[in-house]
Write a structure and sequence with these properties.
Order of helices and strands: EHEEEHEEEEHH
Distance between the termini: 40 Å
Largest sheet: 5 strands, mixed
Number of helices: 4
Mean pLDDT: 80
Radius of gyration: 20 Å
Strand content: 25-35%
Structural class: alpha+beta
Length: 179
C-alpha cells in the first residue's frame, strides 16, 4: 500500500476517448471535473489540478485552510489559482477512480495523462470496467474481510481509548470553531 495524490481533471479533456454513456457517468459524480488518484507524482497526499492544460500543485500550507478540521471535507468549492504552484515536469501519470452511478453500478476509469514541460499533451483511456451491485459488494466485502477479527485484548483497550480521545478532540474542536 502507500500514499497517493489526488488530481482534479476537467472532463472536457477526457471526452475524446469516451462514449456518451461514460461521459454521463462522469458527469453524475461531478459536472465539470474528474477527481482521481495517482501514485505517479510525489505520493505525499498532495492535491493537483490541471488548469488550461498545465499541471498545478496546491501549496500544502494552504491545504489545511480549505478543509474542515473535523471531517476533512472541502469548505469552499473552488480554490484560488494563486494558491497553486505550476509544475514544469515531463512525466506520464496514470489517474484512476471508481464511480458509483445512481443504480449502484461501479464504473472504474483509468486514464494515462502525458505531460511535457508541465503541459498536457495527450490523454488516453487505459481501462474502463463496469461492475454491477453484486460484484461491487463482493469486492468491498473481500477487501475488508478479516479486518479486526484477530485483535488482542490490549489492542481492543487501546482502540477504545483512541476512540474516546478522538471524540473528545472532535467535540472541543467543534465547540472552538463554532464560537
Amino acid at each position: 500500500m502507500g500514499l497517493f495524490d489526488e488530481i482534479k481533471i476537467p472532463i472536457s479533456y477526457l471526452k475524446h476517448d469516451l462514449d456518451i454513456e461514460q461521459i454521463k457517468v462522469l458527469k453524475e459524480a461531478d459536472k465539470k471535473f474528474f477527481h482521481a488518484h495517482t501514485k505517479d507524482l510525489d505520493n505525499s497526499m498532495s492535491f493537483y489540478e490541471i488548469y488550461r492544460k498545465k499541471l498545478h500543485k496546491l501549496d500544502s500550507k494552504k491545504l489545511s485552510s480549505i478543509n474542515d478540521p473535523i471531517n476533512f471535507e472541502p469548505i469552499a468549492e473552488t480554490i484560488e489559482l494563486s494558491e497553486y504552484k505550476q509544475l514544469d515536469c515531463t512525466t506520464d501519470i496514470k489517474a484512476y477512480n471508481t464511480i458509483l452511478d445512481l443504480e449502484n453500478v461501479a464504473h472504474k476509469f483509468v486514464f494515462n495523462l502525458h505531460f511535457k514541460k508541465g503541459r498536457l499533451t495527450s490523454v488516453e483511456l487505459d481501462l474502463y470496467d463496469v461492475q454491477d451491485e453484486d460484484e461491487w459488494e463482493a469486492f468491498v466485502s473481500d477487501q475488508f474481510h478479516g479486518l479486526g477479527e484477530t485483535r488482542t485484548t490490549k489492542q481492543k483497550v487501546f482502540r477504545k481509548l483512541a476512540d474516546v480521545c478522538y471524540k473528545g478532540y472532535a467535540y472541543f474542536t467543534n465547540k472552538l470553531f463554532k464560537s
